[in-house]
Amino acid sequence: MKIDILTVLPELLESPFQHSILKRAKDKGLLEVRVHHLRQWAVNEYGQVDDYQYGGGAGMVMMPEPLANAIEALSKEAPYDEVIYMTPDGARLNQRISNQLSLKENLLIICGHYKGIDQRIRDQYVTKEISIGDYVLSGGELAAAVLVDSIGRLIPGVLNDETSALFDSFQDDLLAPPVYTRPADFRGAKVPEILLSGDPKKIDDWRHEQSVQRTQERRPDLLQP
Predict the structure, then answer these.
(1) How many CB atoms lie within 10 A of CB 30?
(2) Domain range annotation of the chain
(3) Does a cis peptide bond (omega within 30 degrees of 0) precede residue 200?
(4) pLDDT classification of 161: cutoffs 50, 70, 90
(5) Residue 33 host element (H or E)
(6) 2-152: what fold?
(7) Which residues pair with 51 in a beta bridge?
(8) pLDDT tens digits, residue range 29-76?
(9) Is the domain covering 169-223 a CATH 1.10.1270.20 domain?
(10) Contact 105, 1 (CB under 8 A)
């Protein structure tokens, strides 16, 4: 999979992809993440990519010309399956969206900044708009990193345990059950006996029951039809 990211602050994305699971994915050749500085396509020698908004109001808007030129230039290498804009008014990111995107070959992510991007880019180029929550960040870079992480770990071969991602929270609209490790008795708090039983069927049933119970308590909305 190849993911391109357009941003005015590429420095914010240097670290997230150089460690842990995403680094492993890149080292295995399963995921390529390329971060592109939007100012490469600036409208003038001063690197301008934003301007005042029509109609007045505080805050600058990212201009359409640099974004259009960048998208068109990068698209010549290979067509994008999705052009994604990270924005607070987009669809709320969930596991289903991450699962769907993990099956794609080429993605482009646009990181908004200032007051956002010119609506004409959203109308003419963007195919999917995604939010990571009902709050506003200074820019879309951190949101893009979250999205890439949620997608990258799902690519077959990235995780050492191929079944690990299948049991994450939200994969089946349930929260993950509680997990335990050694010691079996920590300051008087003991691991549930069922997990020490060695009976896979009973353990699976217990974990499912715990997932349902935790979901009912913490996220009952996930159980709504």
Answers:
(1) 14
(2) 2-152, 169-223
(3) no
(4) low
(5) strand 32-37
(6) Alpha/beta knot (3.40.1280)
(7) 61
(8) 999 999 999 999 999 999 999 999 999 999 999 999 999 999 999 999
(9) yes
(10) yes
